[in-house]
Amino acid sequence: MQYRNPIKVFALTFITFGIYFFVWHVRTKNEMNSKGAHIPTAWLLLVPFANYFWLWRFCQGVELVTNKKIDASLAFVTAFLLSFAAPAAIQDGLNEISNQTEPSGAITVSPKSRLLVFLLVYFLAPFGAHRFYLGKYKTGALIIVTISGFFGIWPMIDCAMALCGRMKDKDGLPITKWQSEHS
Does one domain contain both 113 and 88? Predict the structure, then answer.
């Protein structure tokens, strides 16, 4: 799998008015099919209702290629509800596959839930709830004071960072697990 920066995937989707969205899906579909996935032609993305079938098969391919690190159901719901941000989150999981040849050291990760951080950003971003959950009280208060983080730009970036697993807690530990260790 080719390494792609998830933030660039997210940004290019907006900059190209959605064209890169299709380009990314076609390229990753071809890469996943070469790894054993069975995703049909991407032309189905353009056909009403058939695109849901295609998206489901794409998410099943993601689950297969990532060895179930990304659940097909969760990827499908994310892609369905947040189609603009889902490629960035999925690309982050695919990047882990592209880096498997490198030796991996023991990295400490946060016990916080990535899913909860995302939900807090998505629903309560104007109040900085996700920052308070992460123990970042000053930036949480700053989001409130700056009228939802400079009119929503900061929370939108945090939303992409949460989906990509790039958020960190107050101790600087990455939040990569979808469920907390306490659940």
Answer: no
Does residue 26 sit within a domain? Answer: yes
- Look up tokens 């939802």; give the residue: 148
What tens digit of pLDDT does each residue of 147-174 get?
Answer: 776 677 788 888 888 887 788 888 888 8
Beta strands, E only, 24-115: none
pLDDT digit string, tens, across residues 61-78: 999 998 888 888 888 988
78 and 119 share one domain: no
125 token code pair: 């971003």
pLDDT mean across residues, the chain: 83
What is the residue range of 39's domain?
A: 6-98
Q: How confident is the model at residue 180 (pLDDT cuts 50, 70, 90)?
A: low
Q: How many domains does the chain have?
A: 2
pTM for this model (two decimals): 0.57
Residue 110: HSE in the Cβ half-sphere, 13 Å Cα cutoff: 23
- On whether residue 176 sits in a domain, the answer given is yes
Asked which of 61, 82, 98 is the last residue of a domain, the reply is 98
| Residues 124 and 130: beta-carbon distance below 8 Å | yes
Among the listed residues 180, 168, 4, the one whose alpha carbon sits nearest the alpha carbon of residue 90: 4
The type of residue at 146 is T
Question: Reduced to 3 states, what is the DSSP secondary structure of residue 69?
Answer: coil
